């Protein structure tokens, strides 16, 4: 049986922890709002670009541009997006595990699969398991991701693809659904697979292209890759904040539960001590009689 | 046929504009581009430049930076990397950027990788200043 003093100390330390988790929850909630707004604001651009592209691709042969052509599946690159910081529940582990699973499952299909990691936690997780596959790690870019960042990554990937270093590029990230739900999502970035244009509505339009179809296409395709990375970064960031918020929320709740239990234990111990003292006094008084 | 154009302008960060306008002038890849209601479907890349549009008798100017313009059914969609309306432009910053770019260009040779970058920066700064002067 721990002494009164011990229990009191423990209550104090749990309270301290709870204060920290509560503060972290608030911070995450504020950041989540911003991240969510950014993700939502980026959507129209991506959607417009997508619709322009599918319009364009519907009129072009599949091999019109290197970024569109399928050329077998010998080398692949997986771009994994994780967070730089922990304490956000299963956020990092889920997506990292999925990366490992994907690579193991497709080892036969591809001659080689390389891994590019964004975020420190993903590297920590996979360093020991798939260390030889990691070709590049980016850190500290997920919070406050700008379009510039996505552009750099996009260009790097497009360059590597154009030099035929890779034949397929995938991106793996936590898509934001709500503050509590994140979906681990795998998307193929390259070769680009334009979504089918919606039937009827728009494919009757025959555009005039300036400078020409090929020119527009070769301009728009790399942009598409950048946009996909940008979107992935924003979604991943929003998911991270959401995951952290809910993780910290349950941590705070666990802490208050624990405080309740400890307080009960403390009061019991106190009562027992009082009873014991009373008994001693009474029996002492009895013996004097 | 509608007698107005619907202009929508989006950047990766947000939707900048969504308005009914009468006339649009855009910096197309092959040259200045004037758009009126009833224009043929068109898809073009845009250069760094000034996009202006008219609503009634009012004229508005926006500095845009690389993108696409799509015309279909009197709907004009502009996708650009950045778009700044004339009254949003920070003239001091643009002038500072201009100075930086000019200095850098003096020291660089044309083969330098950085040359193109600075040249583009110079162009952007010039356009910004030009647009800002028109508010």
From TrEMBL, chain A:
<dbReference type="InterPro" id="IPR000131">
    <property type="entry name" value="ATP_synth_F1_gsu"/>
</dbReference>
<comment type="similarity">
    <text>Belongs to the ATPase gamma chain family.</text>
</comment>
<comment type="subunit">
    <text>F-type ATPases have 2 components, CF(1) - the catalytic core - and CF(0) - the membrane proton channel. CF(1) has five subunits: alpha(3), beta(3), gamma(1), delta(1), epsilon(1). CF(0) has three main subunits: a, b and c.</text>
</comment>
<keyword id="KW-0375">Hydrogen ion transport</keyword>
<dbReference type="GO" id="GO:0005524">
    <property type="term" value="F:ATP binding"/>
</dbReference>
<dbReference type="Pfam" id="PF00231">
    <property type="entry name" value="ATP-synt"/>
</dbReference>
<dbReference type="InterPro" id="IPR023632">
    <property type="entry name" value="ATP_synth_F1_gsu_CS"/>
</dbReference>
<keyword id="KW-0066">ATP synthesis</keyword>
<keyword id="KW-0472">Membrane</keyword>
<keyword id="KW-0997">Cell inner membrane</keyword>
<dbReference type="GO" id="GO:0005886">
    <property type="term" value="C:plasma membrane"/>
</dbReference>
<dbReference type="GO" id="GO:0046933">
    <property type="term" value="F:proton-transporting ATP synthase activity, rotational mechanism"/>
</dbReference>
<dbReference type="GO" id="GO:0045259">
    <property type="term" value="C:proton-transporting ATP synthase complex"/>
</dbReference>
<comment type="function">
    <text>Produces ATP from ADP in the presence of a proton gradient across the membrane. The gamma chain is believed to be important in regulating ATPase activity and the flow of protons through the CF(0) complex.</text>
</comment>
<keyword id="KW-0406">Ion transport</keyword>
<keyword id="KW-1003">Cell membrane</keyword>
<dbReference type="GO" id="GO:0042777">
    <property type="term" value="P:proton motive force-driven plasma membrane ATP synthesis"/>
</dbReference>
<dbReference type="GO" id="GO:0009579">
    <property type="term" value="C:thylakoid"/>
</dbReference>
<dbReference type="InterPro" id="IPR035968">
    <property type="entry name" value="ATP_synth_F1_ATPase_gsu"/>
</dbReference>
<keyword id="KW-0139">CF(1)</keyword>
<keyword id="KW-0813">Transport</keyword>
<protein>
    <recommendedName>
        <fullName>ATP synthase gamma chain</fullName>
    </recommendedName>
</protein>
From TrEMBL, chain B:
<dbReference type="GO" id="GO:0045259">
    <property type="term" value="C:proton-transporting ATP synthase complex"/>
</dbReference>
<dbReference type="InterPro" id="IPR036771">
    <property type="entry name" value="ATPsynth_dsu/esu_N"/>
</dbReference>
<dbReference type="Pfam" id="PF00401">
    <property type="entry name" value="ATP-synt_DE"/>
</dbReference>
<comment type="similarity">
    <text>Belongs to the ATPase epsilon chain family.</text>
</comment>
<dbReference type="InterPro" id="IPR020546">
    <property type="entry name" value="ATP_synth_F1_dsu/esu_N"/>
</dbReference>
<keyword id="KW-0375">Hydrogen ion transport</keyword>
<feature type="domain" description="ATP synthase F1 complex delta/epsilon subunit N-terminal">
    <location>
        <begin position="5"/>
        <end position="83"/>
    </location>
</feature>
<feature type="domain" description="ATP synthase epsilon subunit C-terminal">
    <location>
        <begin position="87"/>
        <end position="133"/>
    </location>
</feature>
<keyword id="KW-0406">Ion transport</keyword>
<dbReference type="GO" id="GO:0046933">
    <property type="term" value="F:proton-transporting ATP synthase activity, rotational mechanism"/>
</dbReference>
<dbReference type="InterPro" id="IPR001469">
    <property type="entry name" value="ATP_synth_F1_dsu/esu"/>
</dbReference>
<comment type="function">
    <text>Produces ATP from ADP in the presence of a proton gradient across the membrane.</text>
</comment>
<comment type="subunit">
    <text>F-type ATPases have 2 components, CF(1) - the catalytic core - and CF(0) - the membrane proton channel. CF(1) has five subunits: alpha(3), beta(3), gamma(1), delta(1), epsilon(1). CF(0) has three main subunits: a, b and c.</text>
</comment>
<keyword id="KW-0472">Membrane</keyword>
<keyword id="KW-0139">CF(1)</keyword>
<keyword id="KW-0066">ATP synthesis</keyword>
<dbReference type="GO" id="GO:0005886">
    <property type="term" value="C:plasma membrane"/>
</dbReference>
<keyword id="KW-0813">Transport</keyword>
<dbReference type="GO" id="GO:0012505">
    <property type="term" value="C:endomembrane system"/>
</dbReference>
<dbReference type="InterPro" id="IPR020547">
    <property type="entry name" value="ATP_synth_F1_esu_C"/>
</dbReference>
<keyword id="KW-1003">Cell membrane</keyword>
<protein>
    <recommendedName>
        <fullName>ATP synthase epsilon chain</fullName>
    </recommendedName>
</protein>
